[in-house]
User: What shape does this take?
Amino acid sequence: GGTLSAVEAYTDTSLSDAMVKDGVAIPFKTNRREAVRFMAKVIWESIREVVSGPYAIMQWIKECARVINKSDSPIMWTTGDGWSCVQAYPSTTSRRVKARVGDKTVKLALSEECDGIDKRRQCQALAPNIVHSFDAEHLRRTALVMKEHELDMSAVHDSYGTHAGNMEFMSEALRRQFVKMYSTDRLARLREDMAQGKHVLPDPPEAGSLVIGDVLNSTYFFA
Assistant: This one.
């Protein structure tokens, strides 16, 4: 949605006229699909350059998924607080159906599950799902600290909130739980979990230079 909006603005007639007057070449004219492909390529190249560490981890996770896919089995791991996670997207097949709605004919595409694992989706979804599971662990750990001190807390995904008078306490709790989580080698444990004793998975990328304890003094962090 956001990418298309940007492309629409870029290909807007009035904007194009202004660029022509300034002598700026417009490479896409009104071909939005071509523009979106160009934008996607630029964004991915930028990600590899700007956040090379997370990108390397994402590629490693995808490679692990490819290895596990060879056995056509689910991918499993456990968060640091003991929550069991299972990813198993089933293969599907599509069937076209025609239906009558009033005086109109509507064509629908129905997806039906079939035997086996959707290997492409297993690869694409694994990294986001692992990140979500770790973020959920962070939320649970922080919520338990807040409950222990009988303080209210709200959350929308990874954005946390509480009453103004409790913000300083919650901010510190968030940081301390984060440091506690990531002071161990989470990728090594993740590799062991996903291997399940039967898959030979590649070694994870080497850790960077971040001193995790510095998070305790960070100005901006979740809340």
